[in-house]
Amino acid sequence: MIESQLFILLDVIITSVLTALIGFERESEDKPAGIRTNIIIGGVSCLLISLTNPLLQFLDAHNNMNLINADPIRVLNALILGVSFVGAGTILKLTDQKKVVGLTTAASLLYSATIGISIALKQYVLGIGITLLVVLINHILPKFFTKK
Fold first, then answer.
1. What predicted TM-score, i.e. pTM, was given to this entire model?
2. Are 87 and 107 in contact (CB under 8 A)?
3. Residue 123 or residue 103, greater confidence
4. Is the dihedral of CA 36, 53, 115, 107 positive or negative?
């Protein structure tokens, strides 16, 4: 029991390191939702997904599972909805300009959530690959496509 909790904690730590890279990139570009926000979004995503199996085991041991219709996919739904709500808070329309800012940061938060989900589901290569992809998208691509 303690061993499984330590593995969940390890996954949250791995997620935190990966999403810190995204947060560092956002913060270094002076964008909203930097290191701490990305770590928290990624870490809580990993933790919530990781807790679905122990939750089902607990319900099975303490309740009649025939009375409870458990659907772990709902956790994904709620998680993405919650992260999208937080991301929406980073999007601003500048009144003095006809410009909307924060969309990339909001999308990066959603990516941080998917990194947490990937690590929680033991998809380590996918989680690391997504992290590298987001850093590439956010840091390298603007150098080629930013209007001067």
1. 0.83
2. yes
3. 123
4. negative
Here the tokens at position 20 are 């810190």
- Residue 95 confidence (pLDDT): 73
Stretch 93-102: mean pLDDT: 77
pLDDT digit string, tens, across residues 51-90: 998 888 887 787 766 666 778 788 889 999 999 999 888 8
Structure tokens at 57: 């085991």
Q: Cα separation of 99 and 71, whole Å?
A: 41
pLDDT of residue 146: 67
Query: Residue 115 has which token pair?
Result: 């990194």
Crossing angle of helices 103-120/35-50, nearest 10°?
A: 30
Helices (H), the chain: 2-28, 35-50, 52-62, 73-88, 103-120, 124-135, 141-145
Interaxial angle between packed helices 103-120 and 2-28, expressed in degrees from 0 to 180 and rounded to the nearest 10: 160
Strands 99-101 and 92-94: antiparallel
The answer to whether 22 and 38 have CB atoms below 8 angstroms apart is yes
